């Protein structure tokens, strides 16, 4: 049948990548967020811009009610691992605000539209996700060990009191 699209296919249809019915203001939820650079370009190669991004990230996390667990600013994208505090603002507002502050500071568009997030489930370990994030520059061949890469940081450690996500 020509022109037929099965109802379960979504080619060309606008769709949300957010979880339906999930409360993005849930206390203590942990999120792994990835934000792409504008036009998938290697924008984050200038140490001055990178330093601004990291400072704005750290300020935004506090401003929106999150605790920064880990991050890695790659040349063409940013990984963030955050945990909501007792009364966070909506994750979408946090990302939107961070992107707006950093774009205004740099005086140029830095980010792709939208972002990807993964809500950690109870069975997922935040330390494992943080290690995955930190090892991005190693997997991309930028460094031998993540500690050599200036634009990533582990803010939590094994002894930290990181609560697990409330999501099943």
Provide structural commentary.
27% of the residues lie in helices and 18% in strands. The chain is built from 4 helices and 5 strands. Strands 4-1-3-2-5 form a 5-stranded antiparallel β-sheet, sandwiched between helices. Helix 1 (47-63) runs antiparallel to helix 2. The relative contact order is 0.22. Residues 8-16 and 164-168 have low confidence and may be disordered.
CATH class: Alpha Beta
Helix content: 25-40%
The H/E string reads EHEEHEHHE
Within CATH, the superfamily carries the name Transposase IS200-like
Question: Which word captures the global form?
Answer: globular
Q: In what order do the strands lie side by side in the largest sheet?
A: 4-1-3-2-5
Give the strand content: 15-25%
Q: Quaternary state, please? A: single chain
Low-pLDDT stretches = 8-16, 164-168
Mean pLDDT: 85
């Amino acid at each position: 049948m020509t022109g037929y699209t099965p109802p379960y296919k979504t080619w060309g249809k606008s769709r949300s990548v957010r979880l339906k019915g999930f409360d993005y203001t849930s206390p203590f939820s942990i999120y792994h967020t990835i934000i792409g650079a504008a036009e998938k370009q290697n924008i984050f190669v200038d140490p001055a811009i990178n330093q601004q991004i990291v400072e704005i990230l750290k300020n935004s996390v506090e401003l929106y009610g999150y605790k920064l667990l880990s991050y890695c600013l790659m040349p063409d994208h940013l990984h963030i691992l955050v945990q909501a505090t007792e009364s966070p603002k909506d994750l979408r507002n946090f990302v939107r605000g961070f992107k707006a502050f950093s774009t205004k500071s740099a005086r140029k568009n830095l980010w792709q539209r939208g972002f990807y997030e993964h809500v950690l489930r109870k069975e997922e370990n935040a330390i494992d996700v943080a290690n995955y994030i930190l090892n991005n520059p190693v997997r991309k061949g930028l460094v031998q060990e993540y500690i050599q890469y200036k634009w990533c940081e582990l803010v939590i450690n094994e002894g930290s009191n990181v609560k697990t996500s409330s999501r099943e």
